[in-house]
Amino acid sequence: MILRSTGSTGIRSTSTLLALPLIGALALGACSTGPSGADAGSTGDNAGSTSDGAGSTAGGAAGSEDTGEFPVTVDHAFGETTIESDPQRVVTVGWTDHEIMAALGEVPVGAVKITWGGNAEGSTDWFDEAVRELGQDPADITRYDESDGIPVDEIAAMEPDLIIGTNSGISQEDYDKLSAIAPTVAYPEQPWSTPWRDSVELVGEAIGRPDQASEAIADTEAAFEATKEAHPELEGTSFAWGWFTPTDTSTVGLYTVTDLRPQFLTELGMVNSPLVEELSTDGAFSANVSAEQADTIDADVFIFYTEGDFGAEQVLADPLLSQISALQSGAYVASSDQQAALGMSSPTPLSIPVALETFIPDVAEAAKTAQEAGR
Fold it and tell me: Is 307 helix (H, G, I), strand (E, B) or coil?
């Protein structure tokens, strides 16, 4: 079920976020790293196939004059996929593709259930708002759980004519199974690390809305620029984004430049700490530093997640972890807001304005603290 919209891409900020119990910071790290077995040079046997008789479209394809021309061939990590005609039943397998579709004026029939940072329905407030503005009910979208792997049979039951996973962790095996159901578009290079612009362009190309994709990118870039102007203290400020395991504080986890969280902050003029740059040589999403070497985390600002009773107070009381220089100067952000953090780890034209409004002011305040401390 796709709803075509002839209006502009709506990029709205959601001021009121749901208060949800924190269910574990490492879950977000898991969602961002994903499987690592992707073979970037191989092509699924059915990459160019299409699915006939994939089901009817509720409400038709109103506004189809705004769609791109078909057939279209999309290149990705597993080869190329040809989409013969305007897709009517799209299922997404990444944590961002359904949001990108909504930002471009279309609604998928199925999407991943958001288990970290989502609302009670396994969705997000900003996505639900966009779907309603498109005249659809978010409850009509099938949400499936992929915590134990891609549920191929469940996806097949939705009768998709296109499957999109531009920011997913699907493996070659997953891709082969999915492309046997319908044409499948995977990530362009590495799993879980597609920059938001690339995802928007790929989704726009696949669903026939390239002009809307360009507009969404331009509007989102304008939101970044407005935030940079509002917070000039971010420019040139170094940062490290880390995480701790409450049951084992012998290491500090750091997200590398491959991860989308650091990429978000660099868009605002911040720079990765030299240590993070050094640890980012092998393309991994995160790296561990021994707690005994916490004082080598040379960042003006340190950002980390809190979990349950393990928060800033416990980190600051730890004799080793407290040696992180940004903690000593008070230039840190201890994040317990999963929804705001989700907009940073899985950025889209819908979630980015929310993160800019709800998360970045805390980062900017930490940057001011660092400057006042002479870092």
Answer: strand
- In the predicted model, residues of the chain with pLDDT beneath 50 are 1-65
* CA–CA distance, 343 with 180 (Å, rounded to integer): 32
**How far, CA to CA in Å, does 263 sit from each of 33, 244, 266, 267, 271?**
15, 20, 5, 6, 9
Strands 301-305 and 238-245 turn out to be parallel
3-class SS of residue 245: strand
pLDDT of residue 168: 95
Q: What is the Cα–Cα distance from 158 to 89, expressed in whole angstroms?
A: 8
pLDDT of residue 341: 82
The span from the CA of 148 to the CA of 144, in Å, is 11
SS3 37: coil
Total-model pTM? 0.81
Per residue in 26-72, pLDDT (tens digit) is 333 333 322 223 333 333 333 333 333 333 333 333 233 466 799 99
DSSP characters for 129-196?
Answer: HHHHHTT--GGGSEEE--TTS--HHHHHHT--SEEE-TT----HHHHHHHHTTS-EE--SSSTT---H
What helix, strand, coil percent values describe the chain, rounded to 5?
A: 40, 15, 45
Q: Work out the number of other CB atoms within 10 angstroms of the CB of residue 80.
A: 13
